[in-house]
Write a structure and sequence with these properties.
The chain has two domains: 46 residues, no CATH class; 38 residues, no CATH class. 35% of the residues lie in helices and 17% in strands. The longest helix is centred in the middle third of the chain and has 12 residues. The strands form two sheets. It has a two-stranded antiparallel sheet with strand order 1-2. The two termini are 40 Å apart. The chain is of the alpha+beta class.
């Protein structure tokens, strides 16, 4: 019933595909308008509306590097920089 459709992003002018699955999802939710922005521009627009998160300075417990995190570090709880956090997350997923 639905077919992939190529649309043009109104923000960046790039082509993006409005997939058959996305169209079905829109229909199930009662959404009648097609998306006007590509995924990257939608994400950027959403971030713009949310405002800037307050970031807190911290020192990574693993590598000692200065970093910033989106939460207020608690005394006695380790804080990791993004690289160490991602590495630890990947190691635990194996």
């Amino acid at each position: 019933m639905y077919q992939d459709e190529t649309l043009i992003c109104e923000d960046c002018g790039c082509e993006f595909v409005f997939t058959a699955g996305e169209q079905e999802f829109y229909a199930e939710k009662g959404l009648t308008n097609k998306p006007k922005r590509c995924a990257n521009c939608r994400k950027a627009k959403k971030q713009q509306h949310r405002g800037k998160k307050k970031m807190y300075d911290a020192v990574c417990a693993k590598c000692g590097k200065q970093t910033q995190v989106p939460f207020n570090p608690t005394q006695g709880r380790d804080v990791l920089c993004k690289e160490c956090f991602d590495a630890e997350k990947a190691a635990s997923a194996v």
